[in-house]
């Protein structure tokens, strides 16, 4: 009852418990809520029943307007299998694959053999990366079919699957369409959605750096042609894969509003949601195709509750401190979210926290604005992916526009491990940590020297410190210039770095400062016993700030004992244990499946990290697990060998 959408609503109806298959996916409950409240129309949002033809039909029977396409258009285009048939018959270039429902694992293997590996298994009824599996051989296809079928049923209430040839290293380009009930069909240019992980989009932009006016027109005309074939009458998106030669292949149509629609709204000036409502009310689109231009550039970053340092595993938790970036004077910044400070990120729904969208005259301006917005975004209480987003925005290949859907696996082949500081960035953070420590020390000294100004006390200090950051040790000489301004000298250098903290309220989460007259934004994550945890360029760094004597004594402290977990299979995230594939006494081999854990509608297969004998199984299918819960245990290796 305390969620953001409920607080904003004039009237709220409880339609069931948190699991979506008992609430948001139950058509009768949603329809009943409409009838109870006298609702005249329903906007379905991004997921759940937004592409469910039976839901639309039930609304149409009761004369409740569905703000989206009519049921016949959704049946034709919203179902991936029907849609591909229509596109193929219309002469649209489609991705090679089997146009029909995959009936069984054996049927899927036969299709894979026919079209050749790699393949992608995907749900017929939904999108958003849920239920997708890329397979490179028969073994992966058998496993992928099972997991994709379960995820599809859980996310969309429909477990039908289709199989396509997986095209390697393409760009993912989509065309936004908007149509009315008066025979008007428009395309609103393209969006580039190539930056993805686990087949889910991470950063989107409009327009694309790669698409020429000629290709844009050809893709748009094909998208409009498909809409005309079925009498489409709302907003929708036609998705394409584009190869290095700018050949494009139709993937599917999403018969709903897309998460990334704001970037199109920014560059066209057309409010897509507004026009979905107006079209549903019978209004006519007032603009021609020639009226739709491209104004500047727009970027969107999806902030997820996930841990990029642990292979993007979903995270849960309570947002204990949450502040979205805002600038009332900047119309080029927008944050769309469904949460507030105090909200819970649970295991039941998609882990997306928000979308941060920026607009600028150029791509460079849009990227710079997005960097600043993410730096100012305060999210505490749950692990998130801002570190990855910021690192991508710094990447030379991204800034040059040289991107494909393989960007993340290619640029982070061993996984993401945090932003690697340049020499200048490292120096900036060392200087900031030393100045922050000195400022806080001065503040604390005012307690014992009541009646004196902080600025006067700061002036008295010119100190030596030792700063340890990112595995490096620096000897610091810090001088107070005036007020909250400092000059920091590193490692005996006679070149000082000027730090201006005049406008920084001590212990505020966001630190806006300048270093050598250049702006810098960091965040104070935590004050530790020996220094700080500081977030800079998205990544959190541990900075120790010590006196020379403290630094000497720290060397005598014992290293913390690392717990040996090699004999455990632990849940990598909080979720539900779907299955356990072994029992006590079983011998398992390296890489063998031992369990499946579901969190936020994604099924995660756990494998044995070493061969051994199972000594204990601690949980059963259906159990709710906390992160790092020990699902099963192995005998110690010495015991197994005996």
What does this structure look like?
By secondary structure, this protein is of the alpha+beta class. Helix content is 28%, strand content 30%. The protein has an 8-stranded antiparallel sheet. It has an 8-stranded antiparallel barrel with strand order 21-22-23-24-25-26-27-28, surrounded by 4 helices. Strands 3-6-4-5 form a 4-stranded antiparallel sheet, with helices on one face. A hairpin with a 5-residue loop joins β10 and β11. The protein is globular and about 75 Å long. The termini are far apart.
Q: Key features?
A:
single chain; 642 residues; alpha+beta; eight-stranded antiparallel sheet; eight-stranded antiparallel beta barrel; 18 helices; 30% strand; globular
Topology at a glance:
Blueprint: H1 4-8, H2 27-37, E1 41-42, H3 53-61, E2 65-66, H4 71-77, H5 80-89, E3 97-98, H6 105-115, E4 119-123, E5 133-135, H7 138-156, E6 161-165, E7 171-179, E8 185-197, E9 200-206, H8 213-230, E10 235-242, E11 248-254, H9 261-268, H10 272-280, E12 297-304, E13 306-307, E14 313-314, E15 317-318, E16 321-323, E17 333-337, E18 344-345, E19 352-360, H11 363-376, E20 378-380, H12 386-394, H13 396-400, H14 407-411, H15 423-445, H16 454-459, E21 462-469, E22 472-482, E23 485-490, E24 497-500, E25 510-515, E26 518-527, E27 531-536, E28 539-546, H17 548-554, E29 568-570, E30 575-580, E31 587-588, E32 593-599, E33 602-607, E34 612-617, E35 624-625, E36 630-634, H18 637-641
Parallel strand pairs: 1-2
Antiparallel strand pairs: 3-6, 4-5, 4-6, 7-8, 7-10, 8-9, 9-12, 10-11, 12-19, 13-14, 15-18, 16-20, 17-19, 21-22, 21-28, 22-23, 23-24, 24-25, 25-26, 26-27, 27-28, 29-36, 30-32, 30-35, 31-34, 32-33, 34-36
Helix pairs in contact: 3-4, 6-7, 11-12
């Amino acid at each position: 009852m305390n969620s953001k959408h409920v607080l904003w609503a004039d009237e709220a109806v409880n339609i069931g418990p948190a699991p979506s298959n008992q609430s948001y996916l139950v058509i009768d409950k949603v329809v009943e809520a409409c009838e109870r409240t006298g609702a005249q129309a329903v906007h379905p949002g991004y997921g759940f029943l937004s592409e469910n033809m039976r839901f639309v039909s039930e609304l149409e029977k009761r004369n409740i307007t569905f703000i989206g396409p009519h049921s016949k258009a959704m049946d034709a285009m919203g179902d991936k299998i029907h849609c591909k048939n229509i596109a193929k018959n219309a002469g649209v270039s489609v991705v090679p694959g089997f146009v029909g429902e995959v009936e069984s694992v054996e049927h899927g293997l036969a299709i894979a053999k026919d079209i050749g590996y790699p393949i992608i298994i995907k749900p017929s009824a939904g999108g958003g990366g849920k239920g997708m599996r890329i397979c490179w051989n028969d073994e992966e296809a058998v496993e992928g079919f099972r997991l994709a079928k379960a995820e599809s049923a859980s996310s969309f209430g429909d477990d039908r699957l289709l199989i396509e040839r997986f095209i390697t290293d393409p760009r993912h380009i989509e065309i936004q369409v908007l149509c009315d009930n008066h025979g008007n069909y428009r395309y609103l240019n393209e969006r580039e959605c190539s930056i993805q992980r686990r087949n889910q989009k991470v950063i989107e932009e409009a327009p694309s750096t790669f698409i020429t006016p000629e290709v844009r027109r050809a893709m748009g005309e094909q998208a409009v042609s498909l809409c005309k074939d079925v009498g489409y009458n709302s907003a929708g998106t036609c998705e394409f894969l584009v190869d290095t030669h700018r050949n494009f292949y139709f993937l599917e149509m999403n018969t709903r509003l897309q998460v990334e629609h704001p970037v199109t709204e920014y560059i066209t000036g057309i409010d897509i949601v507004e026009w979905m409502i107006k079209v549903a009310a019978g209004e006519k689109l007032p603009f021609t195709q020639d009226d739709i231009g491209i104004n500047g550039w727009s970027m969107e970053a999806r902030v997820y509750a996930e841990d990029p340092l642990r292979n993007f595993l979903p995270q849960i938790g309570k947002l204990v401190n949450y502040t979205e970036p805002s600038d009332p004077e900047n119309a080029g910044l927008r944050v769309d979210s469904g949460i507030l400070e105090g909200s819970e990120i649970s295991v039941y729904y998609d882990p997306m926290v928000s979308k941060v969208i920026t607009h600028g005259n150029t791509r460079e301006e849009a990227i710079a604005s997005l960097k600043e917005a993410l730096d100012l975004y305060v999210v505490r209480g749950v692990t998130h992916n801002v570190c990855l987003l910021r690192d991508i925005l710094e990447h030379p290949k991204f800034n040059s526009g040289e991107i494909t859907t393989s960007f993340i696996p290619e640029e982070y082949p061993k996984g993401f491990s945090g932003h690697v500081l340049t020499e200048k960035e490292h120096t900036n953070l060392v200087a900031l940590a030393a100045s922050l420590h000195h400022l806080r020390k001065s503040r604390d000294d005012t307690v014992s020297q009541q009646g004196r100004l902080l600025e006067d006390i700061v002036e008295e200090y010119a100190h030596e410190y030792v700063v340890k950051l990112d595995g490096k040790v620096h000897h610091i000489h810090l001088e107070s210039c005036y007020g909250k301004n400092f000059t920091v000298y590193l490692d005996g250098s006679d070149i000082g770095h000027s730090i201006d903290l005049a406008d920084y309220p001590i212990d505020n989460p966001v630190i806006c400062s300048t270093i050598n007259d250049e702006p810098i934004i960091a965040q104070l994550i935590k004050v530790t016993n020996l220094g700080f945890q500081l977030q800079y360029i998205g990544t959190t760094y541990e900075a120790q700030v010590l006196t020379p004597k403290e630094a000497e004594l720290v060397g005598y402290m014992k290293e913390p004992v690392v717990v040996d977990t090699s004999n455990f299979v632990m849940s990598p995230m909080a979720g539900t244990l779907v299955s356990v594939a072994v029992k006590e006494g079983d011998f398992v081999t390296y890489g063998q499946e031992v369990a499946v854990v579901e969190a936020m509608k994604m099924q995660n297969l756990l494998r044995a990290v070493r061969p051994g004998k199972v000594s204990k199984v601690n949980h059963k299918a259906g159990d709710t697990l906390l992160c790092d819960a020990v699902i099963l245990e192995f005998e110690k290796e010495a015991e197994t060998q005996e």
